[in-house]
Amino acid sequence: MKISIADYEDYLFDHYKSHGIDTSLFMKLVEEVGEVAEVLNKRDGRKASVNEDLKSQLANELVDVIHYAFAIASLNQINLNDVILEKDKKASIKYHHERNLEQFMSER
Length: 108
Fold this sequence. Notes:
The protein has five helices and no strands.
């Protein structure tokens, strides 16, 4: 099953609309970013790791980061699909990319 950004935003809005507090969600987001850093430090040998599935851990922590970032956006009625495309267009011009995300998607 594939989900769209809009589906995920709608789901998270439904989940958090009655009790989602931006500052609480932001604190969880920061916590999860720290956990991503911890996994990367283990992977790169800056922190001890014994028989751990670091790829799986990294995937799970990144999903947590996405979850909380999307939840904050959803509660603030931010359409991430539109913002991602708009920001990518500006970045592709600024950094002289060969093509932007919208062009990439239309070429697929």
